[in-house]
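User: Hey, quick favor. My workstation is busy. Could you predict this chain's structure for me?
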Amino acid sequence: MLGAERRAVATRAPDLAALTPGRTGNLSVRRDDHFAVTPTGVAYDRIVADEVPVVSLDGDRVAGPTAPSSETPMHTAVYREFDAGAIVHTHSPWASTLAILHEPIPPVHYMLALAGTTVPVADYATYGTEELAKNAVSAMEEADASACLLANHGLLATGEDADAALETAVNVEYTAQIYCQATAIGSPVQLSATEMNEVAEKFEGYGQDED
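Assistant: No problem, here it is.
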């Protein structure tokens, strides 16, 4: 069940190691009304595709011998509300720094357009709870963003597939870093909504055309 999605989780999960300490992050890939998600407590480089749990949008595990990520409620809630194909959650240091400050990431670099004009901060709630899931959805809906910071916690990013979700997470983390650095030196200059929208449109056609 969801063989391709389970392989994608197992293959790309090791990439989380560069973004988050220990086993604190998670990744899921969706197909229709089910998604494959990293198992809880398993080292990223030890995840095997056949053991990756599959969860329904009702939150029920329907395949796989391992228990799903403790943040499964957040993945479920996001998939219910957004047309996302994959979700990445990390505790990357610069994004987490701003999450602790309850400081949204403003449009100081055009690469943030992968996530929206601004990356908002979702209100704090205990990890793994329905309340945290609701807060994340609300923050992204209000900001019209595909990523958000989780207050005193970390980062949540979405994309059309695992590659896109990871790319968004990497670029949000990069923008968080340079924003923190720029703030320490002076007053960062923000791009306008028009400028960010122009970049978002260019991103839609970015890359090599396929015959």
